[in-house]
Amino acid sequence: MEQEIILQKESDKLSFLKPIASFLKSKFEKAKVLKSLKKTGITLVSILLFLGLWHLGSKALYNKEAAYKIEKALNEQGQEAADAEKACIASGDSSCQPNTLPSPTQVWASFQSLIADHKLINAKKEAFATKMAATNAKLVAQGKDAIVYTGRASFVDTILTSIKTVFAGFLLALLIAVPIGIIIGLSPSLRSAFNWFIQIFKPVSPVVWYLLVFMIVKTLYIGASSDNAFVISFISVGLCAMWATLVNTAMGVSSVDKDYINVAKVLKLGTFQKVFKVILPSSLPLIFTGLRITLSVAWMVLIAIELLAQSPGLGLFVWEEFQNGANDSNSKIIVAMFVIGIIGFLLDRLMLMVQQMVSFNKNEGI
Amino acid sequence: MAYLELKNVSKTYGQGKDSTEVISNINLKIEEGEFVAIVGFTGSGKTTLVNLINGLIKPTSGEVLFKGEPVVGTSHERGVIFQNYSLLPWLSVFQNVAMAVKEAFPKENKSEIKNRVESYVEMVGLTHAINKRPKELSGGMRQRVAVARALAMKPEMIIMDEPLGALDALTRGNLQDEILNIWNQDKRTALLITNDVDEGIYMADRIIPLKPGPNATLGPEFIIDIDRPRDKTELNDNASFMKTRNEIIAYLMAIGEDRKSVSEVEYLLPDLAPKSFVDTF
User: Fold this and answer.
1) CA of B132: how far to CAs of A34, A283, B127, in Å?
2) Domain boundaries along the sequence of chain B
3) Angstroms from B7 CA to nearest CA on chain A
4) Under an 8 A CB cutoff, do A195 and B85 touch?
């Protein structure tokens, strides 16, 4: 009986506490929501601020260039020409627009026109494919190569080419740097043998790597009809970017925790087992840190190397637009800049995810 | 012939002027089936002594004999439980134990290895956590895995280097009992290194204090003649326990005092710096 009363009291107490608890809970959740809202709000405000500053800046530059154009017309051809120039600029005619930093709206328009252009080219490609289907089938049946579309590449195509190149280069860097890193990490004498090599070639500029690869690949491809721009650019990217992985792998392998080595010794693991079951897993976090740096370096040098190698990627797109000097070239360059930045960011996030998956805290096993 | 014998063993680290003799002239005999505890202050060279016996390092002078043969390198006959559990954090409990089993029993097939691993994990009461990674386990559970890993290799001798030092008192007591049970089951020879006198008295047949290093040597041994199984709750009322405990503590306090007075002499420390990778790359 007494117990029952106590129980009753307990539950009374609890039911009395319930509204307070739920109130606290809702307040807590409210605070959480507010916090995340605040965070997004700050980001949005900063983006708007950035766009506003950009707009003002480009407007100032536009006005400066316009004033200079009118002034020049006035000095060289007189008042009449200056008035004509002024009217021309005000009318928005593309023949006399000041060519300077584009405003955000211009860039957005260019982005849309690039997408429209991509759709147009895609439609052309499809039309070409259906038109040539019968002919190609015949050619293939005769054992000859099919005729493919060789028109202009769209903006999306250049992005895909760039991503393909960067991944090929990344893969090459991985295949070269990780095995060499492991080998020189395991042997102190090999480490000193390779040290000068790493020290000297690590700081070499992407342009020079491109030239070196060009010298070699050009000779190897003598007589071959296929285009070697892709090969040259991905090899150069790989060679430029592999150093971070090489150094990190060697460091990871050579600095395996002594406790793990003792375990390997006490369990009497063979050399193969020791390398693959203990040394490699324990250096994986450092290897992946290296690979992450490698991928971001690869993406960064890619633009310069594509430009030099005339590989139809984003680098070449930017360069050609600059050479082109058309009315919307500048805004297309800015579009490419944003695309490069966003893809670089996404690649880095991807690697960060992989890196966090393989990494562990040293203290976890101790 | 003793099962494990150390004859005038010394170990010196460093060379020439910078050398330090960590332990010197250690003489120790352990008979088969015995449980011996070595008690010492932290930093008195206990881990060096363990590594000499398990074969991770070689003595500078003297001999370590195991079953009459000099110890060369590590062996599956001597299982080691490390001070820090030294589990491989990227492997699960099962994989950590299986790694040892595969090495110790290379001829067994997959299901035999699986059975063996599972039986040892069950023995330390971790069947529910067999697929977990070390980071998901508490300190006591990790140490259990380390115990299972060492025992799964069926060593003839178990060497424990302060295995319970990092655990809380309750977990510590439980694991002491578990280790004793396992030792009791097939009467393996055991060597326990500890800094806890009570732990030594509760678990061992003999306690040998280690005088602190440099130049650490073994002190006189104390025989614990309390019947097994020992009951922890009754130990405090046991006259023999109290007597031995007081003797050992008095002895350790005395050498501790000696050490303090000696340590007023200035030691020349070796000029060592942490390994730097800045110059390497």
Assistant:
1) 37, 21, 10
2) 1-77+156-221, 88-154
3) 23
4) no
